[in-house]
Amino acid sequence: MKAKTLALSACSLLAMMMAAKAETLTIATVNNGDMIRMQKLTDDFTGKNPDIQLQWVTLEENVLRERVTTDIATKGGQYDILTIGNYEVPIWAKQGWLLELNDLGSNYDMDDLLPAIRGGLSVEGKLYAAPFYGESAMTIYRTDLLEKAGMKMPEEPTWEFIGEAARKITDRAAGVNGICLRGKAGWGENMAFVTALANSFGARWFDEQWKPQFDQPEWKEALQFYVDLMKDAGPQGASANGFNENLTLFQQGKCGMWMDATSAGSFVSNPKDSTVADKVAYTVFPSKGEFKNHGNWLWSWNLAVPASSQKADAAKKFISWATDKAYTELVASKEGWANVPPGTRTSLYKNDNYLKAATFAATTLAAMDAADITKPTVKPVPYTGGQFVAIPEFQGIGTTVGQLFSAVIAGQSTVDDALAQAQSITTREMTRAGYIK
Amino acid sequence: MATRNTSTLARFMMAPAVGLLLIWMIVPLAMTLWYSFQNYNLLNPINRSWAGFENYYYFYTDPAFWQSIANTMTIVLGVLAITVIGGILLAILIDQPMFGQGFVRILVISPFFVMPPVAALIWKNMIMHPSYGVFADMARWLGFQPIDWFGQYPLLSIVIIVAWQWLPFATLILLTALQSLDGEQKEAAEMDGAGVLSRFIHLTLPHLARSITVVILIQTIFLLAVYAEILVTTNGGPGFASTNLAFLIYRTALLSYDVGGASAGGVIAVILANIVAFFLMRTVGKNLDR
Amino acid sequence: MARAVTTQRKIFFTVASWAVALLIFFPILYTIITSLKSETEAIQGFGLIPSFTFENYVLVQTQNGYFKPFMNSVVISVGSTLIALLIAVPAAWAMAFSPTKRTKDILMWMLSTKMMPAVGVLVPMYLIFRDTALLDTRLGMTIVLTMINLPIVVWMLYTYFREIPGEILEAARMDGASLWNEIVHVLTPMAVPGIASTMLLNIILAWNEAFWSIRLSAANAAPLTAFIASFSSPQGLFWAKLSAASTLAIAPILVMGWFSQRQLVRGLTFGAVK
Predict the structure, then answer these.
(1) What fold is seen in the domain B65-242?
(2) In whole angstroms, what is the distance from residue A238 CA to residue A152 CA?
(3) What are A301-352's pLDDT values in tens digits?
(4) C127, C222, C237 ranked by CB distance to A74: nearest
(5) Neighbours of chain A (3+ CB pairs under 8 A)
């Protein structure tokens, strides 16, 4: 009782202080390099909008997702702007949790957004989040190591070629691993890669009746390939490696090849952090050969506003600032063109300055244009999503299956056991959630 | 008359603490019980309905359930074993005459001040990292292949980290007890010609018994709830190799956002914890009454 | 002769304990050392002599201000400790000096409330906090931490008070001292070390609590545990930055602990020493 009155009076005091001062936006964001850069540049925004103040909550991806999800689902109202992935956007929009972003200002060039990205953030033609940066997946490789092994990267590599090259490059005594791939368990970590790999092998998560497909030969083939390759040519402790860990390894010259998000391009080619910046080249994500499927990986980090927001106008102003073309130019002028947030706008890929500075731009655009999240694999599927399945249950299922696959990489389990367990766990969860009648 | 007065007064003095804790326990517990019988997924709040015992059924039949119980026990017992035995040895060592005892004590007590996520991050990245950790550097220097700690020995790694955090606590309590051991008694035993080992068994150990039970009691409370260390280092894997009960509930609550399932897990955990508590309190309570 | 042996012994034990102590302290020491290295230096293999750069601290500070979470941690941990003491001292007092048959049961029950897994009640708690407008407030965080640590505080004080011999009380009563006098002049001086020790332990526990403090706060009340959560996996090289952030997060409590360890240790017996 006492606590409540105290709390209420404290709140009203706070509210009074806020009303007297400027409007404060609380922005929840992930601690990725591009977001941290945005935080540093906010003086530009507050300079133009002196009546709006910004307050940042920067967190590691998983903690951020937990907190933001708990808050929006319980309508806690702690955040005015959320940083969320294109996985969450359609699911949350359907729940009515997100504000439609139709009016981001007259200058905002909506039609410039890459169609694949825009499509992933829209529900029934309405945009519910503005993309901050986007990515697909590609093959990043070391030209010098490939040359030394006497091999030449084809324009569209097959997994067969990758496997052979990785094994040839591997020189563990010299600390060089032929290939670095994600092994750390998580739906957004190893399962992003494994699902893209499986897509390119012709596997699918569910058939049209939502029956899990881990008992099918395509999955076995894909997983076996991945496990064998990592055993022969992967780094030590690969079961703990996610995007960040592999990035570090690659920057330190410990990887010959790396299939991962296109956004890695600006980090591996930046001579300040990367010891191999002048020896990197890029090409598309490998395919199996017989199907021209390159995984269909598509991800974007986006800014969205909770439907219950009291500060929608200010929030939209900020989103418009952070995701429009002018922001790109701002970053370019302060940090160089190679560091602008990639993968959201067509105009960026027609900008000569960018194309000159970013050697990975062409591959990025090709990969993003090729990614089709409505048809991730050869066989028909009841879901959308490339390297994930866009249903609310996927976070839990994906991470559990990720644990099982991670155990195989760690040598604690076998391909057959992991697949059998994955099949039974996924069937169980899907039955529980009511997909399987 | 006087006694009645003091006992009324005593009740009055205890009321705030007891009352607040009662509320603190009952309100969330009641809500948890209620949710545990509901189909309630945070991501799909419209589909709320009565679930009966379905949440319990699903939690209990989770493929990780039994392993998580076994892992919980391993963590608790493993850490207790290391900290109690290590703590006794360390306390005896520090109790010896030496130079700079205060400084040694400061160094030994330090890990206790480190918050669990930081402890886990330090061990994960600085010490046990298979490429950049100190252990890996040492292994390479000795000409061995570095060990992938979290991949190969996930549970052991977690036990080591948690034990490192709690060893100072055990050591300090045991050291204080040791220092209260009567010097005369010690000398008398020495005069009797009792060997080091027999003195330890017949004199020191019985004297430490109460302290040991205290260490066990307090640590068990915290060890049953270990989860930050797992989250930071292994995320419960590989497979379910390092998933304990607290982490399994965490996974249900904050990955699947299954409030019903997590509540059922919470209720199961409360029941199990109370069983542990019952036996623990029995033995410890007896020991403390002496 | 005997003297020589003891000196020898003393040197032996000095060397042995210093070695063990340094081993235990090493992870912390190495973190501090790494925080003074440059990022490339940090992953170049084992090295105990850093280049003494402070760039990581500067980076950490500019990326996420340190002062605000630091102040939050101080306010929350000290505040919750004082409130917990205020509630616990009378309770422990009553239990120690007017014990009934049920005292022990109540005590054990209090401790058992700590065994409830926090994450199982996260959603209910979040809803309660939302409805009472306590989300992301220092007051809310203080309340949670008070309640979490209350059982330990009560128990620790109880075991300490119980050591105070009852005869002293009776003697004071014989002299006709009032209850107030009894408390102020006789008991308080004897109880102060125990209360001080309890307070220190509780501040440490509150400072290091990492579940509720991360999940019920956002921007305004986020303490250092949330501060560290924004450094746990950045992109690229981060060993040195992580070390700097870790050092900043633990330094205040570490220093406090070092300075007060004598007081802390004195009461840290939980009634185990007679």
Answers:
(1) MetI-like fold (1.10.3720)
(2) 26
(3) 999 999 988 899 999 999 999 999 999 999 999 988 988 999 999 999 999 9
(4) C127
(5) B, C
Chains interfacing with B (3 or more CB pairs < 8 Å) = A, C
Contact B225/C117, CB-based, under 8 Å?
A: yes
Q: How many angstroms away from the CA of A291 is the closest CA of chain B?
A: 32
Among residues C87, A180, A336, A57, the alpha carbon closest in space to that of B131 is found at A180
Percent of chain A with pLDDT over 90: 58
Q: Which of A11, A74, A267 sits opposite C126 (nearest CB)?
A: A74
Assigned CATH class of A137-297+370-432: alpha beta
Least CB–CB distance from A239: residue in B41, B238, B258: B238
Q: Is A437 helix (H, G, I), strand (E, B) or coil?
A: coil
Which pairs count as long-range contacts for A146-149, CB under 8 Å and 24+ apart, including other chains?
A: A146/A256
Interface membership of A237 toward B (CB under 8 Å): yes
- Alpha carbon distance A272, A253 (integer Å): 14
| CATH architecture type of domain A2-135+299-357 | 3-Layer(aba) Sandwich (3.40)
Give the domains, in start order, of chain C with CATH numbers: 2-58 (no CATH), 66-230 (1.10.3720.10)
Q: Which residues in chain A are contacts of C237 at CB distance < 8 A?
A: 248, 251, 273
- What percent of chain C shows pLDDT beyond 90? 25
Q: What is the pLDDT of residues C202-259, one digit of tens each?
A: 999 999 988 888 888 888 888 998 888 877 765 666 888 889 999 999 999 999 988 8
Residues of B in contact with A403 (CB under 8 A): 235-240
β-strand A177-180 against A255-261: which pairing, if any? parallel
Nearest-CB residue to A404 (from B151, B234, B239):
B239
Residues in chain A: 437
Q: CA neighbours within 13 Å on the CB side: how many for A310?
A: 12
Q: How confident is the model at residue A5 (pLDDT cuts 50, 70, 90)?
A: low
DSSP secondary structure string for all residues of A215-244 = TSHHHHHHHHHHHHHHHHHPPTTGGG--HH
C22 contacts B96? CB cut-off 8 A = no
Distance CA A370, CA A294 (A): 8
Tell me the pLDDT tens digit for each residue of C83-134: 999 898 888 888 887 777 787 778 877 877 777 777 778 888 888 888 898 8
Taking the CA of residue C44 and the nearest CA in chain A, the distance in Å comes to 10
Residue A78 and residue C237: Cβ atoms within 8 Å? no
Interface test with B, best of A59, A252, A400 (most B CBs within 10 A): A400
Q: Give residue limits of the domains in chain B.
A: 65-242
